[in-house]
Known about the structure:
The chain has 124 residues and is mainly β. The protein has no helices and 15 strands.
Amino acid sequence: VRGARAQPVIRGCRISGHCxxxxxxxxxxxxxxxxxxxxxCACGIWVDSGANPLIWRNTIAGHRxxxxxxxxxxxGFTMGNAILRNGAGGVLVESARSAATxxxxxxxxxxxxxxxxxxxxxxx
Length: 124
């Protein structure tokens, strides 16, 4: 999902087996992803470049990377999700502290590494 005019509602879907992110919000996109089962991708949900989605009541599990990744000015609300059994942690906020995201009332467990991690982005 890309661009400031993008505001989709993605509800009740099964998203699985993608070689990249299951769902990606970039370039100031907005939108809602709710009640979806997102599994077995490189990462579950990717948010960056001013994107501001509502990620609500999903199951995000079994990815090679992190369940939710927020980078470079990423915004958004991640609320009420089950985030489990991901290969590189549950939620990763990587932004040199420039992301302003809310991560509230999620069940995050059984991930490899940290369940919730904030790390600075690589220079450049």
